[in-house]
């Protein structure tokens, strides 16, 4: 099992809830993440890849708006945990493990809280801080998939 990749992609979901599933879906559609003959095979469809990418881009834009709710609100945390668990389970390799889902979900929760602390403490304009967080989330997701592929 590659729990490090599960944690990384889970953390991506904690920072940007739709980015983890979008990265997994795109990688599965390219057969980098193997989901055929699993309960998550639907994530590898072209339609799922397009839809999740659109949702992720929408979230990246919406995150910069001043009226967006706090990511540590219960509903937001629950969604991030589920997205992290789903992504962590999907990326863990041929032998899908419930522990990988737990690792992904826990990493998503930890990253959600780390992200909000970063935003509170960094001495940058809010949009600049958010763009840096976007880059970290996307870069971590890409690295997790790359490590899985190599």
Provide the fold topology.
Elements: H1 3-15, H2 19-29, H3 46-62, H4 74-91, H5 98-121, H6 126-149
Helix pairs in contact: 1-2, 1-4, 1-5, 1-6, 2-3, 2-6, 4-5
Structure description:
The protein is mainly α. It has helices at about 5-15, 20-30, 45-60, 75-90, 100-120, 125-150. The chain is globular, with a radius of gyration of 14 Å.
CA radius of gyration is 14 Å
Look at the helices and sheets and give the structural class. mainly alpha
How would the global form be characterised? globular
User: How many DSSP helices?
Assistant: 6
Number of strands: 0
User: Biggest β-sheet: count, sense, barrel?
Assistant: none
* Arithmetic mean of pLDDT: 91
Query: Approximately how much helix is present in the residues?
Result: over 70%
Q: Which sequence of SSEs, written as H and E, runs from N to C? A: HHHHHH
Q: List low-confidence stretches.
A: none
**How much strand?**
under 5%
- Amino-to-carboxy terminus distance: 15 Å
Oligomer: single chain
Task: Write a concise keyword list for the protein shown above.
single chain, 150 residues, mainly alpha, 6 helices, 0% strand, globular
What is shown here, in short?
The chain contains six helices and no strands. It is mainly alpha-helical. The longest helix has 24 residues, at 98-121.
């Amino acid at each position: 099992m590659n729990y490090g990749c599960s944690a990384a992609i889970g953390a991506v979901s904690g920072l940007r809830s739709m980015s983890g599933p979008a990265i997994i879906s795109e990688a599965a559609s390219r057969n980098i993440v193997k989901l055929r003959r699993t309960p998550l095979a639907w994530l590898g469809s072209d339609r799922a890849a397009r839809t999740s990418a659109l949702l992720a881009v929408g979230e990246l834009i919406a995150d910069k708006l001043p009226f967006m709710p706090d990511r540590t609100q219960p509903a937001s945390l629950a969604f991030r945990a589920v997205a992290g668990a789903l992504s962590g389970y999907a990326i863990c390799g041929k032998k899908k493990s419930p522990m990988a889902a737990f690792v992904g979900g826990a990493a998503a929760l930890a990253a959600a809280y780390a992200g909000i602390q970063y935003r509170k403490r960094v001495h940058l304009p809010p949009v600049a801080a958010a763009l840096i967080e976007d880059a970290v989330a996307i870069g971590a997701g890409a690295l997790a998939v790359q490590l899985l592929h190599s």
